[in-house]
Amino acid sequence: MKEDFTHRLQIYSKWKADMIKNIKAYQDWLVKHELNDAEDDLRVFEVIDGLNSDSLTVAFVAEFSRGKTELINGIFFADYQRRLLPSAAGRTTMCPTELFYDLEADEAYIRLLPIETRADDMTIAEHKQNPMNWTTTPLDVASPGKMAEAFNEIVKLKSVSTDEAKRLGLYVEEPDEPPPSEVEIPLWRHALISFPHPMLKQGLVILDTPGLNAVGTEPELTMEMIPKAQAVTFILGADTGVTKSDSDIWKHHIIPHIDTEKTGITVALNKIDTLWDELKDESAVASNIAKQCQLTSKALNIEANKVFPVSAQKGLLAKIKQDPVLLEKSGLAALESFFSNNIVPAKQRIVRENVTTKIGGRIEGTKNLLVGRQDAAQQQLNELQSLSGKNTDVILQLMNKARDSQAEYKKNVENFQTSRHVLTQQVKTVLETLSIESLDKLIAKTRSEMVGSYTTAGMKKGMITFFDGAKYTMEQVSWQADKSNELVQAVYQRFRDEHNVKDIQPVLYSTKKYSAQLSRLHKEAEAFRNSGIMTMTEQSFVVKKFFVSLVSHARNIFFQARQDAETWAKSVMNPLAQRIKDRKKQLDQHLDSLKKIKSSREKLEEKIQELETMCADLGDQINTIDELLKAIYTPLPETEPTQSPKNTEKVAV
Ligand SMILES: Nc1nc2c(ncn2[C@@H]2O[C@H](COP(=O)(O)OP(=O)(O)OP(=O)(O)O)[C@@H](O)[C@H]2O)c(=O)[nH]1
Ligand SMILES: [Mg+2]
User: Fold this and answer.
1) pLDDT tens digit string along 474-508?
2) Count of structural domains within the chain
3) Residue to probe by mutation, ligand 1, list 313, 319, 330, 335, most atoms within 8 Å of CB
4) 213 C-alpha to center of ligand 2: Å?
5) CA–CA separation, 134 vs 191, rounded Å?
6) Which ligand 1 atom is at minimum distance from the Cα of 270?
7) Does pTM top 0.85 for this prediction?
8) Which of 11, 290, 351, 442 fits 469 for a cystine, CB–CB 3.0-4.6 Å?
9) Is residue 651 part of a domain?
């Protein structure tokens, strides 16, 4: 089964590689035909970069000791014939752990972020930009024993004074107990494991998390890392059922932060082997498991076919011992095939949409330009063909017509330059409103409202200031963007009328995406404020962390909105400028041809032939672009329908 997932990842990687090849070919083609400009080059590089660094994240989340790590061992690392990542009773995984392969460095390592960095204002994402802040140890991949030993770092603890633990937000005071002088805290804040496993090399990232109700869970994990995953698997224990703590995690840390349209959620009801009973017949056991799944699906309010009964431990054992009967019984294969059949195709769809929105329009624009050239060449060809056997007067008439067109063209260019200038002024106001400086002022104001009162009330006030301010700014931008769009549309309309072209349409700038992101962030912030975390004594620390990640998130949204506006402003008129340039060239060439034909009638046949070759060449170029468009818009071959796990079919209501 695992081969299935690997195989799908391979097909997906190949699709990405082909996409990169096609886009590069397009870029080369643009350069060769002198049709590229700096903005387009940048966008193409961005898309290629995005495809190169694209990854697919599967996150495993749960209360502690539900078997997250064991499930990862069983699904992905059974080939190593042992339990590769440490899994044991009680709290084991002490820091979020990302398993991936660092293709750029092409090295296996474990990189650990010291727990003390919790005291600073930097997010984990920001720390990732700077390997100097981490402790890096190379991994000896030839020795599973040595690797398992290196991975043991992620379960390590150390003793610190209670004050130090408080400073790091890792100590919660018990109301009736005197604080101890020392407490045990995790040694590391975050772990990155680069490991040359075939699936990880294909871009898979596995996120293992510590029990989410642990003291000091950083909001960055629940608000950023988990929501960004393409798949989230929530794990429960069949021995414990859905406890209050499980249900709190599900309600407060998972559901409010996940966009179910984008993220595939599955629930693994683990440890079903605890329900196996050799004294009962198999059907009684199966119906007991099915009942548990049904209860789980009801308790979490999730479709029954998303609940997978599994035994991670027996699955791992079955794979190591190569026991197909036990493997089947462990239910691991059903969960794996769900991953293969659903996660990869969903991911490919998102990536393809991203490529098409970023450069699809540009490629279509290129095609329209070529069709425009072909039409113009065909028109000239028709004119020249109609000249054979005609006298000089007719040629003179055509020359006059061409000169009139040139004069008209000149006037249109002047109009175009004026509109371009007006648009530049208009866009300036959009960019000014989107300035990071004004957002930073808002952040400072919010901070001053919250500092010293990291309480529910202080936080509520701060959040109202922040989101009202951010929303207001975005509305302003949206209003100004509408005005810019109207202007652009008017310029295009005029261009279409004056130049008699039908197919040319502008790309418009929209803040919709950013407003939606902001309101999502707002929703997450509200969910956070209403969550149980706010009543915990360590609140000031967690709230501060929350604020840090909220601000970095909001800043990113504004930064992206501004960058997009800048790129848009620079390139929105390019298709028209390109057409104008083309038109000038065509008019000049045509007049030149007519002059030559007038002085020597033998030239007529030569010019007709030139135009015929040009039309044929343009036809070839249009075909090439069509192929490229087809490659970009075609999804991966149809996948098999979603498979339901055997046991839950019985419980589907
Ligand atoms: N019987 C049984 N025990 C399991 C199964 N899966 C995991 N366990 C045991 O449950 C305990 C916890 O497993 P882990 O994989 O460490 O759990 P975790 O969710 O990663 O826990 P934390 O890292 O503490 O958050 C270990 O002793 C495992 O051996 C299973 O399918 N059946
Ligand atoms: Mg674990």
Assistant:
1) 999 999 999 999 999 999 998 888 877 777 888 89
2) 2
3) 313
4) 13
5) 9
6) 31
7) no
8) 442
9) no
